[in-house]
Amino acid sequence: MKEDIIAGLDIGSTSIRLVIGQKISGPAGEELQIIGAVSGPTAGVNRGIVNSIEETTSSISAVLEKAERLVGVPINRVWVSINDPHIKCERSKGVVAVGRSDGEISDNDVNRAIEAARALAVPVNYEILHVIPIKFSVDNQSDVKDPIGMNGIRLEVETLIIQGLSTQIKNLTKAIYRTGLEIEDLVLAPLAAAEAVISSKQKELGVALINLGSSTTSLAVYEERNLIHTAVLPIGAEHITADVAIGLRCPINLAERIKKEYGSATIIVDDRDDEIDISQLVVEEEINDDIDTISKKYVSEIINARVEEIFEKVDAEFKKIDRSGMLPAGVIFVGGGSDLTGLVEAAKKKLRLPAAIGVAKNINVVIDKVRNPDFLIALGLVIWGDNAGSEEIAGSGKIKKNLNGILEKTKGFFNRIIPK
To answer: Could you state, in order of their start, the residue ranges of all structural domains in the chain?
Structure first.
C-alpha cells in the first residue's frame, strides 16, 4: 500500500498543506483517488525562502503527523513545491545530428538534443530545476510537436530552462530531510497547480495561471499546450493586509479579518451602508482599541491600489513575451490570496483578459477541503507525481531535471548525522 501513496507538500509562507493520493484499481484500470488533506501554520519561511531550518522542520513534522493519523499509513516520500522569488527562466536551443543511418528520429536523439539545450551558462549558485521542451524543428520543418518517428538529418529543440538558487534549494531540502521524508522532486508551484486546474484546451488557446500566495505571486503562461513563461514576484496577499493595517491604523490580525469579511479588490462606489460596525470583530480579536466603524469604500480603495500594483507586475511579465491582453483563455487564480472579493473583476479590468478562480477539474475530488484554491498546488503535486512516468506533464513532452545531485548530497549528509 505504501507504494501506492503519492503525497504533495506545499510549503507556503504562512501555511503548509499536504495532500495524499492513492492509486486504486477501478473499472478503467488504475486511477488516482485523494484520501486525505491537512494543513498547518508555517514557521521559518518568509517570502518563499527558508530562514530557519529548525522552525521549518518542526512545522512540516506537525503537518506530517496530522496527515499520518488521518490516513492511517506512514508517508515516506513527497513531491515538494518551490516558490522562491529568485527563480530564473530563460530559453535555450539544442541541435544534434540524427543518429540512425536511415534518418529516423528516436528517443535517444530527442534526449541528446535536450541535453545539448541544457548546456547553457548557469549563473553562479544556481541549479537547473526544469528543462521543458517547447518545440522541435526537423531540418527545415519548424514547430514540430513530437519528432519521434519522423525522418531527418538535423534535430533542433527549443527549451524553457527554469533555475533556482541552490542555497535556497539546499535549505529547503535539509528542512524536509530532517523530518525523515524522502523527496521525489521539487516542482515550481504554478506548474504543479496547472496540472490540477488547467485543461488541455485552455493550454492550447493560451492561458496564465496566477498563484496569489501570502508573500509571493507566481505565474505560468501556456500556449499551444506548451509552457512559454514562468516567474515568481515578491509581492502577495500579506502586503494587502499590511496596507489595510496602516490605512486604518489597526493591528494586523484585525486588518486580515476586515480584508476577508468586508474588503473588495474593486472600488465600491455605492455610498449606501458605507459605514460598517466592526466592534464585534474588535472583541473577537481581543483588541484594546476604540475602533467602532470603518468606511467600506475607503477599505476597498486601499485594497484596490495594492491589487492593481500586483496586476501591473503580472502584466509586465506578459509584456516580456508579447502576451499582454493576448491570452484567449485568460487568467486562472489559485492560492490563499485568491479568495478576495472582487479579485476576478479587478483582473478583467486591469489585465484586459478573461479571469476566473481555479477549480480542480483534472481529477475527481470528494474531499471538500481540497477544492479550496489554497490546496490546489498540493493537489497538483499529487497529479504531477502520478503523471511523472508519462509524457503529459506540463503538456510539454519529456521533462528533464537536474536536482538529483544536490538532493542526493543533502540526503547523504543527513544519513551520516542522523542515527539509524
So the answer is: 2-85+166-191+363-417, 88-164, 199-361
